[in-house]
């Protein structure tokens, strides 16, 4: 059994981790940590856990408890995770769900997050936790930087085309997310009356996932990628639908593009390529760890790509557990939800 601890277990991503790990046959949840709710049982904090998992939320010194487990998930805000991770790594392996170790470049992180990085020496060691791309490096990693939800929905469909030199910049990305992507912290913009029956773009040109997408696509394409990223807020709880607009470097048929995807993802348990003429929808992925992909060629060299994920599962906690499976030699399908919450 892989013994795990969860640091920051009472937010949406922490609770989603618990939902998944509680059903994982090769995992033992040793502890869940939250200073704010220390001493409360899980069922007191969240009645959904009644008759499911009996755990008391710990407030004990987390660095001592790190030695009790094989891996710690840090489901903490950016800026906070980096306070803990260097010392945690002295005792165990870490899967970090914050943004603190996703960037290779310290200056890029500091520019977009507005704070100094306190452990820049770990940026070169951290492995970007996208198993479909970096599986071999994840296997032996001490520190896995779990990707952002929007970047997951964009990088997976684009990297096979980049690898073949098929994309001419710029790449235009239009993404729409459910409200849970903003986390639990109260905000007037996220009040029911502000979100319900509404759709709005936000953080145009300033969203922090934009440079994360651009950096990874640049690495995978071998040259700088110009990305225009516009996120939108949907009046739903969960899910991301991303639409990408690209120009091909040379003429390739729609059929051949789909074949390229099929070849790239035929052995990927959580990537589903839709047949010609079918396109992803949120209702086919919510609650699951799947990413669904579809595309249509428009004109000689223009392609529209659509992807769909659950932002809390494949976009966060499910992907973190998929990384755990890779790190400990477990089949990547084990313990992860394939069932979709439909209808």
From TrEMBL:
Subcellular localization, as worded in the UniProt entry: Cytoplasm
UniProtKB keywords: Amino-acid biosynthesis, Arginine biosynthesis, Cytoplasm, NADP, Oxidoreductase
Reactions listed under catalytic activity: N-acetyl-L-glutamate 5-semialdehyde + phosphate + NADP(+) = N-acetyl-L-glutamyl 5-phosphate + NADPH + H(+)
GO cellular-component term (any): cytoplasm
Entries under Pfam families matching the protein: Semialdhyde_dh, Semialdhyde_dhC_1
PANTHER family: N-ACETYL-GAMMA-GLUTAMYL-PHOSPHATE REDUCTASE, CHLOROPLASTIC-RELATED (PTHR32338:SF10), N-ACETYL-GAMMA-GLUTAMYL-PHOSPHATE REDUCTASE, CHLOROPLASTIC-RELATED-RELATED (PTHR32338)
Biological role stated in the UniProt entry: Catalyzes the NADPH-dependent reduction of N-acetyl-5-glutamyl phosphate to yield N-acetyl-L-glutamate 5-semialdehyde.
UniProt name for this protein: N-acetyl-gamma-glutamyl-phosphate reductase
Lineage, opening ranks: Bacteria, Pseudomonadati, Atribacterota, Atribacteria, Atribacterales
């Amino acid at each position: 059994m892989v013994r795990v601890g969860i640091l920051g277990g009472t937010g949406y991503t922490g609770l989603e981790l618990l939902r998944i790990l509680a059903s994982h046959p090769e995992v033992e949840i040793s502890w869940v940590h939250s200073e704010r709710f220390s001493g409360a049982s899980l069922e007191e904090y969240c009645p959904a856990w009644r008759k499911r998992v009996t755990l008391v939320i710990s407030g004990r010194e987390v660095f001592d408890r790190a030695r009790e487990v094989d891996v710690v998930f840090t489901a903490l805000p950016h800026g906070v995770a980096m306070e803990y991770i260097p010392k945690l790594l002295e005792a165990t392996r870490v899967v970090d769900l914050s943004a603190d170790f996703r960037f290779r470049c310290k200056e890029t992180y500091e520019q977009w997050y507005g704070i100094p990085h306190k452990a820049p020496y770990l940026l070169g060691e951290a492995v970007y936790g996208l198993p479909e791309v970096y599986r071999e490096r994840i296997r032996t990693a001490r520190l896995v930087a779990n990707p952002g939800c929007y970047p997951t929905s964009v990088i997976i469909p684009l990297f096979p085309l980049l690898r073949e030199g098929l994309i001419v910049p710029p790449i235009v990305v239009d993404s729409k997310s459910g409200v849970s992507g903003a986390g639990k912290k109260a905000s007037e913009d996220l009040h029911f009356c502000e979100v319900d029956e509404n759709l709005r773009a936000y953080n145009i040109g300033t969203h922090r996932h934009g440079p994360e997408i651009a950096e990874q696509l640049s690495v995978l394409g071998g040259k700088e990628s110009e990305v225009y990223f516009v996120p939108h807020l949907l009046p739903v709880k969960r899910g991301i639908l991303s639409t990408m607009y690209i120009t091909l470097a040379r003429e390739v048929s729609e059929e051949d593009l789909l074949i390229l995807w099929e070849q790239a993802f035929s052995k990927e348990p959580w990537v589903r390529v839709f047949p010609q003429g079918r396109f992803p929808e949120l209702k086919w992925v919510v609650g699951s760890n799947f990413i669904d992909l579809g595309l249509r060629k428009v004109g000689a060299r223009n392609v529209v790509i659509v992807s769909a994920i659950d932002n809390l599962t494949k976009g966060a906690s499910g992907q973190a557990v998929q990384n755990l499976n890779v790190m400990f030699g477990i089949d990547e399908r084990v313990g992860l939800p394939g069932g979709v919450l439909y209808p």
